[in-house]
Amino acid sequence: MADIYLTNSLTGKKEKFELHNSKEVGMYACGPTVHNFATIGNFRTYTVADILFRLLGYNSFYTKYVMNLTDVGHLVGDADTGDDKVEESAKKKGKTAWDIAEYYTKIFLKDFEALNLRKPWIFPKATDHIEEQIDLIKVLEEKGFTYKTSDGIYFDTKEFEEKTGRKYGELSTLDEVLEGARVRENPEKKNARDFALWKFSKKPGERHMEWESPWGIGFPGWHIECSAMSMKYLGESFDIHIGGEDLRSTHHPNEIAQSEAATDKPFVRYWIHVTFLKVDGKRMSKSLNNFYTISDLQKKGFDPLALRYLYLTAHYRDSLNFTWESLKAAQTAFDKLRSQVVGYREKSSRTTLSPEKQKKIDDFRNRFTLAVCDDINTPRALAAFWEMLKSNIPSGDKYDLAMSFDEVLGLGLQGFQTQKVEIPIEVQKLAEEREALRKAEKFEDADKIRKSMLEEGYLVEDTPEGPKVNKIQK
Ligand SMILES: [Zn+2]
């Protein structure tokens, strides 16, 4: 197996992935805020996380994978200002925050499955870990990293730099910009970059989600949940933390600062950031009304796995432009790939391989493995996949390689079944013609018919009861 290389945002370099003092990989992904539908932009990040999770398994690592669900504390404003997103959504829809969180979590999990994303070991919710968050804030308080304002308990970033000798925000490449951008909306904040650990309820009883704490009734800030939950499940130092590029400048530096201030240990070794998905060449934004969800795609007749295929066509550090045309092209390519693979499944007989063919098989496997291990280069891996399908290696080996590649790509090729439907009379006639040719041992001609049927979307399977025709499911 090849070594895995990942671009680590901490160093900006591609680094060899190595385990440190443990047998298993600890991996944490910042999950959705369940105040609304997750978009196809959010799902790009979760799909890259899924491919990395699969790749680690492919390389024989056992991975403890955690993805949180943010159901409290994520505020509308980046500088801990404005309403809580879940409470705000509840207000607009006349529901409770608990109902909103439950509703969007359910839909998120349904979309997650539709994209064939493997379930993490655990999906911890922020509201189930209030005690852990309070305990972590207590540690920070005892060590002198916090202060109180009229609206909450804050983390002192300057104190962090002075006490630990570490620079705050080392992940960020936009330090200066950020300092200015984080408007000091709360004049009681000591430094512009300080962030809330605990916010007080303005009027206790007004929010749906609030808890008692040593500092007063309120709710945890967004950043503290990821530190509390990742360290609970993966330990104080763990291997991989992955998230969208929007988290790189504020959320992740905050997670590092508060975790390392509490434990005096390096928090995470490899930070991976996924570049935004664009829609029609523009960043997705509310004002442009260009947010799409998985169900928007399904309503237009697209298979969510075609979106997964589209994600694979770009490297995760490059921006990917979504258009309906690009999705259509991805659906066509994906259907073709799937029907070819299904076609090879029926011909899985083995023949003795010439050394030349065996070498070709090994080469395809190596090319694919090197591509995915090289910073998750899925476009290169897909190219190797297609070349393999077009090559002259035996069908059974093509099928085996396809199944092995799909362990990483996750296009659901193995579970794919053909569907029984009414078969048109012309297609039935073709199948009979093919069977006659087979009986006359004119295998090449018979195969030509089989291929043309496959192109029309019909698969002939030779069963002990005779040939059976199925329509390939879209
Ligand atoms: Zn997070």
Concise account of the structure shown:
This protein is α/β, with parallel strands linked by helices and 474 residues long.
**CATH class wording of the largest domain:** Alpha Beta
Associated small molecules:
zinc ion
**How would you classify the helix and strand content by structural class?**
alpha/beta
DSSP summary, beta strand count:
15
* Average pLDDT taken over every residue: 90
Biggest β-sheet strands, sense, barrel: 4 strands, parallel
The share of residues in extended strands comes to: 5-15%
Topology record:
Elements lengths: L4 E4 L4 E4 L7 E6 L10 H19 L3 E6 L17 H9 L3 H18 L15 H13 L3 E4 L2 E4 L1 H8 L10 H7 L13 E6 L17 E3 L1 H13 L3 E7 L6 H13 L4 E7 L2 E3 L2 E2 L10 H6 L4 H9 L7 E3 L1 H22 L9 H19 L4 H13 L4 H15 L15 H15 L3 H13 L2 E6 L2 E6 L3
Parallel strand pairs: 3-4, 3-9, 9-10, 11-13
Antiparallel strand pairs: 1-2, 5-6, 6-7, 7-8, 11-12, 14-15
Helix pairs in contact: 2-3, 4-7, 7-8, 10-11, 11-14, 12-13, 12-14, 13-14, 15-16
The structure holds zinc ion.
Structural notes for this entry:
It is a single chain. The protein has 16 helices and 15 strands. It has 474 residues and is of the alpha/beta class. The chain has three domains: 270 residues, Rossmann fold, CATH 3.40.50; 116 residues, Isoleucyl-tRNA Synthetase, Domain 1 (Orthogonal Bundle), CATH 1.10.730; 47 residues. The chain has a four-stranded parallel beta sheet with strand order 4-3-9-10, with helices on both faces. A four-stranded antiparallel beta sheet has the order 5-6-7-8. Helix 2 packs across helix 3, helix 7 packs across helix 8 and helix 15 runs antiparallel to helix 16. The two termini are 34 Å apart. The mean pLDDT is 90. Bound molecules: zinc ion. The site of zinc ion has 3 residues, from loops.
